[in-house]
Amino acid sequence: MPRHQTPGSSGMDLHAAIDAPLVLQPLGRAKVPTGLAFAIPAHWEGQIRPRSGIAAKHGVTVLNAPGTIDSDFRGEVLVLLVNVSDAVVTLQPLDRIAQIVFAPVGRAELHLISDLEVTFRGEGGYGSTGI
Prior knowledge:
The chain is mainly β. Helices cover about 5% and strands about 30% of the residues.
């Protein structure tokens, strides 16, 4: 079962539910099963995030981070991992591969308009506020 590793942890670790070692080649990716399915309440989501340890030590991260588990999804949670290192990485059964954070979700109502209100930042994007 996923659990918080410390009292201050926001995420719970997810484990590889595999029967045999799984080899990730450099730049290789795999959908790794967790053996888990969730009944997440409406207006909440599960966010699949990388674990810092496996990313720092082995160059393995969650490709679509954060992955979203919607409240109406009832299938097994798979974690899309990618090996961004230049070395082969082998995952073992029950290795901690990612973490899940449960968070509330706001619902937006969109309206088509012709003009946006002016702000100090305006259209400034990428790097416009400094490095």
